[in-house]
Amino acid sequence: MSASNWIADFLSQLPEDITVNQIDIPSITLWQIESNVWQRFAEQAVKKNLRWAAGWAEQIQDRFLINACFEKQGEYVLLRTIINHSNPELPSQATVYPAANRSERHTQDMFGIQFIGHPDNRRWTRHQAWSEDSYPLRKDFPVQGTPVDVTPPDMHYPFIKAHGAGVYEIPVGPVHAGIIEPGHFRFLAVGELILNLEERLGYVHKGIEKIAEGREPESLAKLAGRVSGDTTVGHCWAACMAMEQAAGVKIPPRAALIRGILAERERIANHMGDIGAICNDVAFVFAQMQFTRLRELWLRTNAAVFGHRLLMDKIVPGGVVCDLSDESCALINKEIVALRKELTEVILALDLNSSLEDRLYTAGYLSEEIAAAFGTVGYVGRASGQDKDVRRDTPYAPYDQVTVMVALENQGDIASRFWVRYKEIRTGLRLIENFIDQLVVGDLRSDWKMPSAGSEGLGIVESWRGEIISHIRFDADNKIARYYPRDPSQLNWPALEKLVLNNIVPDFPVCNKSVNGSYSGNDL
Amino acid sequence: MLRIFKKILTTGVVTEKFKAPKDTELEQLGIEIKNHIDKQFSGSIAIRQVDAGSCNGCELEIHALNNPFYDIERFGVHFVASPRHADVLLVTGPVSRHMQTALLRTYEATPNPKWVVAAGDCAACGGEFGVSYGSCGAVSNVIPVDAVIAGCPPTPLALMKGLLGLMNTKK
C-alpha cells in the first residue's frame, strides 16, 4: 500500500458525523474539524494505527487554534480545530492517545484551554512562576509577567501515593548529584524494587515559546539552536525548514548537503557520548574514557572545520553560514576512516565483556506495545521495534538523494538502545561520506522572501534523538507569531516511567541514560 | 580482557600539557575573576555544578573537562555530589524562575567560604533568554557571583582556564 492510500481510505471510512475540511496550504496536509468531534477523530485515528506525534495551540485574535499532528507510513497530517476565547474547552485526545497527555496539560497551563475528560488534569509546565488563572501564551500576557522577588518552590504537587507495609518514597532532584539537567523524580519502592516512578519536569521552563514571538527569522533560528543544546543542529534545522516553508524559500543543494553533514556529525558526537556514559553508569570506565576521547577528537574537528564544537548557529534561514573546502572534506574523510578502525577495536572489547552483558541485557525493558502507545521516537522507539525514521520515511534534502539504513532492534532493553546508537554511528559515517561525494558547487544561502502574514510551516527532521516537529506561524513584517518545537524527549520521557518498573533503584541512572531525554527540550 | 589491555596500551596517555593562564589571556577568553580563591584552598577545590536553566550545551562542555585530554582532576579540581561538600558552585543557564529557590537553597547549603562561578553567556548575562516571566536572567540576579566564564557554550579550555585562574595557581 503506498503512503497516500491510507489517507484516501481513512477519509472515506470516517463516520458521517466527523466532517473533515481539507484546507489547501503549501507543503502541509491540513484537516480542519469541529471541536466537538476532536476526541472522536482520535478514536478513529488510533483504530487505523495513526501515530499521535505532536500537539500545540495558538491564539489568533479571540480564537484558539488547537493542532494535533498525526503520522502513518511517513505521511503527516495536521489536524486542527478552532474554539472561541470565551469558552476555551474541547474533548481530550489523551483518553485515546497516552502520548497526548503531557502535551494537553502543557496547553492547559499555557493557554487556559480545558481538555474535557483528560485522565490527569494536574498542572504540568506550571510550577509557581505564574498564577493558576493566568496563561503565559495568551497574547494579553506580557512577556515579563508579574514575577515576585523569589519564586516559591512547587511544594504541593499531588504526587501519586502508595500505601502499605514496606512501601516508601524516594524524592530525587531537582538538583541532581552529577553534571546533568534539573528535574524531579519520585520513586515508590519496596526494598530496592521500583514500584512506580513519577517524573516532575518543568524546572528549566524559560519561556522559549513566548520569547520567540516577535523575533525575526535569524533571531528565531538562534533561539531554536538553544531549545536543547545537544540538539542545536536538529532544532535549528527544523525551525529553519518551517520558516522556509512558510516563506516559500528553497535552499541551495550545497546548503542541504552541508546541513546533512552537520546533522550526522551531531548524531555521531552525541551517540558516542551516550555509549560511553551508559557504560560509565555501570562502572565500566574503560568505555567512558575511550568514547569521551573519540568524542573530543570529533568535536575538535567540528571546531577546526565549522568554527564551533557543537555546531551552533551554522544553519540559518535560507541555508548555512559555513562552507567545506576540499581540504576540509579530505580531513573529514580521513577522520572517518580512523574512527571506524578505533570503533571496531573498542566495540569488540565491549561486546565480549560479561560484566557489561550482565548489566545491560534485559534491564530497562520497554515492550513494543508500550513504545508504540507512547509514540516513542528515535533510538528509544527503534530499540523497541518502532521502525520509523524521518530521513527514510519522509525524506527531505539531502536525505532524498541517499539510502538511509535504519537501525532496528526489538529486545527493548538498555543493550538494544546501546546497539541502535552504535549502528547509527556507522550509518552516519557512511552518510557523511556520501554527502561529501555529492557536494556540488553552488550557493550556501538563498535570498530570504518576506512571508505573508499568517503563513505557516511545519519542519520535520530526524535529529540524533529522534523526530523533531516544529511549527512556525508568521505575523506581518517578517515577525514570528508562534513557534512550537516538539523535541523527541517529549514523547520519550513518559516511556522512562514505564521501562524502569521492576528494575532496582540503583539501576535507574543507567536506565535514564539509555533514554537520555532532554530536560530543556521538554520544558521549553 | 586482552583487547581492553591492548587498546589501553596503544591509546597511551593523551592528557595535554597545560599552563596556568595569564591575566591577559583570561580577558581574551571573556573570563572575569572578581574574587580569587584563598591560598589555603587553591591546591584543591570541590565543585558542585548546578544547572539553573541551561539548554544543556554548557553541561556537555563541563563534562568534557573530565575526558582524558583535559583531565581536570589532576589540578585538584573535582566535582562533588552535594553542595555541602563544595567550595565552588559552577552555575549554568539563565536562572529559570522554577529553579530560583532550588539555586538559593543550594547556595545556602554550601559551607563558607564559598565561591560562585557563572559559566556560559546565559549565566553571565541572561544570553538568548534574558529576563522574562519564566527566567530571572543572569545568575548574579539571584546569588553573588565571584567569576564569570563567557561563551556559548564556553569551551573546555576556557572553563579550565577560568577555574584555574580562580584558584590563582600562578607562581
What does this structure look like?
With 524 residues, chain A is α+β, with helices and mostly antiparallel strands. Chain A folds into 3 domains: 114 residues, Beta Polymerase, domain 2 (2-Layer Sandwich); 34 residues, no CATH class; 316 residues, Cytochrome-c3 Hydrogenase, chain B (Orthogonal Bundle). Chain A has 17 helices and 15 strands. In chain A, the strands form 5 sheets. In chain A, strands 1-2-5-4-3 form a 5-stranded mixed beta sheet, covered by helices on one side. Chain A is globular. The relative contact order of chain A is 0.13. Chain B is an alpha/beta fold. Chain B is built from 6 helices and 6 strands; from the N terminus they run ααββαββαβαβα. The termini of chain B are far apart. The interface between A and B is large, with 65 and 55 residues.
List the topology elements.
The complex is a heterodimer of chains A (524) and B (171).
Chain A: H1 3-12, E1 21-25, E2 28-32, H2 38-47, E3 51-60, E4 63-72, E5 75-84, E6 89-91, H3 101-111, E7 114-116, E8 167-172, E9 184-190, E10 193-200, H4 208-212, H5 217-224, H6 232-247, H7 253-280, H8 285-306, E11 315-316, E12 319-320, H9 326-351, H10 354-360, H11 368-373, H12 378-382, H13 390-393, H14 414-438, E13 456-463, E14 466-474, E15 480-486, H15 489-499, H16 508-515, H17 519-523
Parallel strand pairs in A: 2-5, 6-7
Antiparallel strand pairs in A: 1-2, 3-4, 4-5, 8-9, 9-10, 11-12, 13-14, 14-15
Helix pairs in contact in A: 5-6, 6-7, 7-8, 7-14, 7-16, 8-9, 9-14
Chain B: H1 2-11, H2 23-28, E1 31-33, E2 45-51, H3 57-64, E3 77-79, E4 88-92, H4 100-109, E5 115-119, H5 121-125, E6 147-149, H6 156-167
